[in-house]
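In pairs, describe these two lines:
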Amino acid sequence: MDHQMDRTEIPARKALEIAVEAAREASHYLMDHFGPSREVERKESHHSVVSEQDRESESLIIERLRREFPDHSFISEEAGRDAISGDYLWVIDPLDGSSYYARGLDTFSISVALLHRWGPVLGIVSCPATGEFFSACKGEGAYVNGTRIQASTVDRLNDSIVSFGHRMLRLDDDGSATRELLRSVRSIRAGGSCAQELCYVACGRIEGVVSRDQSIWDYAAGKLILEEAGGTLTDFHGSSPQLESLRTRDLSLVASNRILQSAILEKLSHE
């Protein structure tokens, strides 16, 4: 039986099944090699590392998807950006949170999204160390391990938990707006994976994520999962990011349960 999809119209559910298979294979591989003292290399930033496991995870995912969708384009963290042609684009982060993975910490994930003409079709975030698998198809809700999820209904900042990216906490400038937001929330956390943190907002464990300089593969899948769970993601000015314009540049993002979006943005307005 020929499993290759028609190049002009792909059933989202079938694409999701194949993407889930690819992500699960990569998840099993990462867990087989999980533990401290992984060999790593520095990326261009001293805050980022890459390992053999990053590359092999990516290879497993892309090879599986290319067998089914040979005409699709790919954007991925380790391999970079294909020359984009056609209507379908896969956006992949094979190991989001490499530094944590290399130290044997469980705050890492695999992120896979499919876009059609730059609009979201599906998103998957696998958290191998916790055994959680988040997924969404456009217009069909968001799920973790098959159970539907919803963002929280917390409506006061002082009752909220917000995750801050490490660049937000470095306070390279005067940091006054960041400090004001830090003082306004009930509790903070610094997650190792943007995709995982977005999913934690989607399932109501936390209320927000504030992070600087995220690449499209860091949030493409998590953004859809969050929105399908009732949350929202914008830039620091409150504008919804246009993915096509962000294929080659980074985004400073604010994500929340939607109820608290304006309050978080207001605190950051002097950033």
Q: What stands out?
A: The chain has two domains: 12-148, 157-267. Residues 136 and 142 are 5 Å apart (CA to CA).
